[in-house]
Structures are given as structure tokens and as C-alpha cells.
Write a structure and sequence with these properties.
With about 400 residues, the protein is an alpha/beta fold. The protein contains 15 helices and 13 strands. Helix content is about 45%, strand content about 15%.
């Protein structure tokens, strides 16, 4: 059996989606060692996996894109974070390879230095991407603006004009990225988008039709559906006697200052014939005014709630979005930053929910959006079936194992 080393960025939203694949490899009697957040080590070890902390300097460079004044400024802030971390996560992975002598590597798509090291390590390696892939395509709109797929000649012209402009924003990080790569012994790139496709295998943790269909996928990309992982826990006692339709509203696990989402949902649905469960995650749960038909917690395992949910209200993180869709639950998406505008548009296009802009978030609009989304179960169930067909963790694990057998 093989020994695999998985290197994650310090984000739970990147650790959790790859866990089902790692656990499937472990079930197949491979040894798996995970480098991740120091706070996550104990329970990762409890799952039967090896675990070590990433270099503290990687964790110390926190994502600060939520402070940006515009989506483009937020993109630049995120790219600076990836480059700054690359000077630490690259040498960190190199030390880990020397210590553990793995047979294969799996690297988070946002660990730019670690990817450079994996590229030159002489080992079978793969990346995983838990969000919509920001690479240009002739069949899809340019990433980042939340645009629907083109229709007709004008739409195609729109994409041809905008795509180089958007990717040019990414390429502003290219000199700093190439400096980090050459220091680590990897070749310079012509575009930042190349970095996403250097591995022999990319485990793309989504599936069409939530991802826009296209004919020019890079041969390394393998769509296996979302990695759905949740804490194993019984349903809360208070959930057992609930008769009303359940609406789950949740904030990001990484702080994005999105507490207004919970405030608007609690107020907007206070007189509706539903029961609201709010999980605040990265937001302090104290201070919310909780109506009679609601409950506010910092963390509750989402699995039991989604089994009962009629609708999910969220910020548009890929984790909660795909978790809801995987069980056929429609969504109201209110993007607060990062790739969430893209997620909101994909959900609308596939007919699995509705969205509201952050600036337009008001209790009355939220209430109407929930009413509309609750009628879109068919679209959500269509996505759930597509996710099941993609193969999930068994398909991902088999693809990783196949790298070992490749010449």
C-alpha cells in the first residue's frame, strides 16, 4: 500500500472537502498524512489519519480580503496572501517530503509554493480545487464577475473582451509568483492560470451542471462532485419535535463580517410559518435578537438539519452551497466576497435557488427570496443527482491511485 501526504492551506473550507477522499484512501489501507491547521490535528488523528501542523508562518498570514473595498481589490488581496504563503508553504512541504518519504502528494490548489515543490519532487501528485476553477474557457464566461453563460453573438463578444481583462488581474501576481517558484526550483509560468493545471491530476470537487458545461476542459481535470464531510453527531434533541419547515441560515467558517445575513433572516422570517436555525460559525452568536421561531448556535452539525431543511440561506461559500444541493435543498445566496458572486450566479442559472446582493439585503427582500427558493426543489434535486453520478470520494481515490500506475 502507498503513503500519501496531503498538504492543505489554513482554511477549513479547503480541508473538509478533501477529507472524504483521504478517508477513502485510508479505507483502502493506504497511509495518509495530512498537514493542516494546528487546531484541527486532534480530530483528524481521531479519524485514523496522520496529522501535522503547517508551518506557523503559513497560518500567521491570514486572509484579509474581506476588508477590501471592491471585488477586484479583494481578488488582489487574496492573491497577495497566496504569494506570501508560498514562501513558507513550499519549504514546509519540502521538509515534510524529506521526513515522511511519501509515495504520492495531494496539494491544495491555493498552496502555490507547495504546488511548485510537488511539481519538482519527482513523485506522483495531484491537486484539489473546492471552488469554481478560475481558468479561461471559450465555453464559459470569465471567472469572477458572476456572469451567466453567453447567449448569442453579443454574449460571445462579451466573453472575448472581458476574459483577457479578468485574467490580466490575476497576472498582476505573476512576477511575485514566479519569483517564489524559481526560488523553489520550479519553472516560471506565462500566466497565473497555468499554476492551476500543472499537476497530472486535478480533483475538481464539483460537477456539471452546477459548473457550467464546456468542451475545452484540460485533460488533468477530473470532476468528482463535492467532498461532503460533517462532524458525526446525533440530531439535536430540540430538532425531534419540530413540525414547521426548517430554514437553515449560516455564516462562513472563516470570518467575513457576514453577521448581517443572520440578522436579516431572523427579522425577515419572524412571522413566517417556519423554524429558523442560525449557525454563526465565524461570527459571535451573542447579541442577535432571536424571535420565538428561531434558534441561534455557533456550531451545529449541518447533516441532521439539512435532512429536514426546506431552504438554506447562506453567504455562497462552496462548502455549504454544495452540501445543501447534495441533498436537494434549494438556496438563497447573499454573496459577501471572494468567489461567492460566482456561486450565486451558478445557483440561479441551474434553477436551484435565488440570490440577493449584499447591498440589497433587507428583511423583507430576504423573506420573499426564501418563499421563492422553497419552490425550487426540483432544480436542487437535479443537481443532487448529478453530484451522485460524478462518483464522489471513491472516484477521486481511484484517480489518485491510478497516478501510481502511470508511467
Amino acid at each position: 500500500m502507498a503513503r500519501y501526504l496531503a498538504y492543505t492551506t489554513p482554511a477549513r473550507g479547503h480541508l473538509y472537502p478533501i477529507l472524504p477522499t483521504l478517508l477513502e484512501l485510508h479505507r483502502r489501507e493506504h497511509e495518509v498524512i495530512v498537514y493542516t491547521l494546528a487546531t484541527e490535528l486532534e480530530w483528524v488523528c481521531g479519524l485514523g489519519l496522520g496529522a501535522s501542523p503547517v508551518d506557523p508562518a503559513v497560518e500567521a498570514r491570514a486572509m484579509d480580503d474581506w476588508r477590501a473595498s471592491s471585488p477586484l481589490a479583494a481578488l488582489q488581496a487574496a492573491l497577495r496572501t497566496f504569494v506570501d504563503r508560498a514562501h513558507h508553504d513550499g519549504p514546509d512541504l519540502l521538509r515534510a517530503v524529506r521526513e515522511h518519504r511519501p509515495d504520492g502528494l495531494l496539494v491544495d490548489i491555493n498552496a502555490w509554493g507547495a504546488m511548485a515543490v510537488a511539481e519538482t519532487a519527482g513523485l506522483p501528485w495531484a491537486t484539489w480545487c473546492p471552488y469554481f476553477l478560475p481558468v479561461p474557457s471559450r465555453d464559459a464566461p470569465p471567472f469572477g464577475l458572476g456572469l451567466p453563460p453567453a447567449k448569442g453573438l453579443l454574449g460571445r463578444v462579451r466573453d472575448r473582451l472581458l476574459s483577457p481583462l479578468i485574467m490580466g488581474m490575476y497576472d498582476r501576481a505573476l512576477p511575485a509568483l514566479n519569483q517564489a517558484r524559481t526560488t523553489l526550483g520550479a519553472p516560471a509560468l506565462k500566466t497565473v492560470a497555468e499554476a492551476y493545471l500543472r499537476a497530472p491530476l486535478m480533483l475538481y470537487l464539483t460537477a456539471e451542471p452546477l459548473e457550467y458545461p464546456r468542451f475545452d476542459w484540460h485533460p488533468s481535470v477530473r470532476m468528482v462532485g463535492p467532498g461532503i464531510w460533517d462532524v458525526s453527531a446525533p440530531a439535536p434533541v430540540w430538532l425531534e419535535g419540530l413540525k414547521k419547515p426548517l430554514v437553515l441560515v449560516t455564516c462562513s467558517t472563516e470570518f467575513q463580517n457576514d453577521g448581517r445575513l443572520i440578522e436579516a433572516t431572523l427579522e425577515g422570517l419572524a412571522e413566517e410559518d417556519v423554524f429558523v436555525v442560525a449557525t454563526t460559525a465565524g461570527v459571535d452568536p451573542a447579541g442577535f435578537k432571536v424571535p420565538h421561531n428561531a434558534r441561534v448556535e455557533r456550531f451545529v452539525p449541518h447533516g441532521p438539519l439539512l435532512e429536514r431543511a426546506a431552504c438554506v440561506v447562506c453567504h455562497g461559500g462552496m462548502g455549504i452551497t454544495q452540501k445543501a444541493l447534495s441533498v436537494g435543498v434549494p438556496l438563497v445566496v447573499v454573496p459577501f466576497g471572494r468567489d461567492q458572486t460566482e456561486v450565486a450566479c451558478h445557483v440561479r442559472v441551474v434553477g436551484a435557488g435565488v440570490s440577493i446582493s449584499k447591498g440589497g439585503l433587507r428583511p423583507d427582500r430576504l423573506r420573499q427570496a426564501v418563499r421563492s427558493a422553497m419552490q425550487m426543489r426540483v432544480g436542487a434535486e437535479r443537481v443532487a443527482e448529478a453530484f451522485r453520478r460524478a462518483g464522489g470520494a471513491p472516484a477521486a481515490a481511484s484517480a489518485v491511485e491510478a497516478l501510481e500506475r502511470s508511467p
